[in-house]
Amino acid sequence: MKSFIIQLAKKTGDQILQHFNKDRVIRIKKKSQVVTQADLIADQIIIKSLRKKFPGYGILSEESGQHKTQSKYLWVIDPLDGTTNYAIGSPLFAVGISLFFENQPILACAYMPAMKELYFAQKDKGAFLNNKKIKVSKSTRLAESFLTFCHGSARKDIKRALEVYNKIKLITVDSRQLGAAAVEMGFVACGRTDCIIIPGAHAWDVGPGTLLVREAGGQVTDFAGADWNLKSKDMVASNGKIHGQLLKLLKNI
């Protein structure tokens, strides 16, 4: 299964890379959400492959919704995470594929074709970047940390993200919005950044990253400190060492 998910992510990523800097926005789903031809192409490639290889498994995709079954296994996919980045020519975009069993991630892959970086994690077997094992950062103080943030498309989540930014920008080394949760969670997993905070997190955006960060030694919870799961509305993924400090900041947001 490991080779299958990696090959599928690479195949999909290489396909959308062919359209990079050539594609155009074909519609706007809602404020701050765009769709390109590459989103739809990637969705078709992944779902066709998953249905053929694992016909009894459920599928949840950002672009085509949920394909329900009675299985305890659920594929959670974001065919093109960071669509706006992709549309404006930024290389910070990824193909995200994760497998959940009874609402917990057990397999995850995030492939960033423009950067030639492939993240992979399997429950209890570690996290890897281009086949090299990775670990979260060692930062213990927010004043020495690099954070990123993202948000859901709902107006209330955008407002809450502004509250988050207002709090963390002044007390960290730097805080930025990179525009692709799969990329940003990969950065946390390999220690490039120390945390990502997402009000209104969608499962397809953070599915792969959740397992990556946990297997790299980090922590992923909701804003109240409960372990993140498919029903969680918000998400904090950190190196674990600054997690308590972050939760205090996020209280009442």
Compact overview of the structure:
Helix content is 33%, strand content 29%.
Write the layout of secondary structure elements.
Layout: H1 2-17, E1 25-30, E2 33-36, H2 37-53, E3 58-61, E4 65-67, E5 73-81, H3 83-88, E6 94-101, E7 104-112, E8 117-122, E9 127-129, E10 132-133, E11 146-149, H4 155-168, E12 174-176, H5 181-189, E13 195-199, H6 203-215, E14 219-221, E15 234-238, H7 243-250
Helix pairs in contact: 1-2, 5-6
Describe what this molecule looks like in 3D.
With 253 residues, the chain is an alpha+beta fold. It has two domains: 132 residues, Fructose-1,6-Bisphosphatase, subunit A, domain 1 (Fructose-1,6-Bisphosphatase, Chain A, domain 1), CATH 3.30.540; 109 residues, 3-Layer(aba) Sandwich (D-Maltodextrin-Binding Protein, domain 2), CATH 3.40.190. Helix content is 33%, strand content 29%. A hairpin with a 3-residue loop joins strand 3 and strand 4. The radius of gyration is 17 Å and the shape is globular.
Keywords, separated by commas or semicolons:
alpha+beta; 253 residues; single chain; globular; 7 helices; Fructose-1,6-Bisphosphatase, Chain A, domain 1; 5-stranded mixed β-sheet
